[in-house]
Amino acid sequence: MKTVNNLPHLSTVLSVFMLVLSVSACSHEDALVEKTFVDSDGIKGIVRITSPKAGSLLHLRGIVGKGEFITQREDRDGCISIPIRFAAGDFEGSNISIQSVDSINLAIYSNEAARKLIVGHEVVSEDYHVTDTSNALLGDIHIESGLTLSYGFVLNPGEWSWSSLMSSAHTKTSCHELQKQKVQPILQKDASEALAIRQIPPSR
Length: 204
Fold this sequence. Notes:
The structure is a single chain. The protein has 3 helices and 11 strands, in the order αββββββαβββββα. It is α+β, with helices and mostly antiparallel strands. The chain has one domain (about 10-200). Strands 1, 2, 3, 4, 5, 6, 7, 8, 9, 10 and 11 form an 11-stranded mixed β-sheet that branches. Strand 2 (about 45-60) and strand 3 form a beta hairpin. It is globular. The termini are far apart. Mean pLDDT is about 75; it is low at about 20-35 and about 190-200.
């Protein structure tokens, strides 16, 4: 059971923070849906946020940026790329500043989260089990780099422009990054199993 706190809801906090940074975002709730392939097991897609901006406003700290969500088509004829708007925040700020930070990389393992992004609905981290490289389990969304578990975040499909509402946001792209990502959990599992075997005491 999730605990209830009196802090402002994540979406509200991030909305205020994004206004301070003068970043406008328009909802893409009615995006044209292209058939995509989502495995019943394993990774469903990857999110890449390049050149995000980080800022602090007293105790509030946030990151905003844009990138893409890559997933495989249902007919397995390549992959598609969907533009993603990203916002993250926590309460560990200590000053007022804006700066560029390293790219953010996420792996999506939840069918529900992947399908939401495909049809143009936002994904809020509070609704999913989020893990990072310190966790043995991959969870629903796995943080590969650029973010810590202290941050809550929102993934919102679409561009930060009115023109994006007038056309399909799905474009064909290479599956190379997605296929490469599918191999990593297998290697991690093999390494964990090998470590467990070495720790088993010899029988007498």
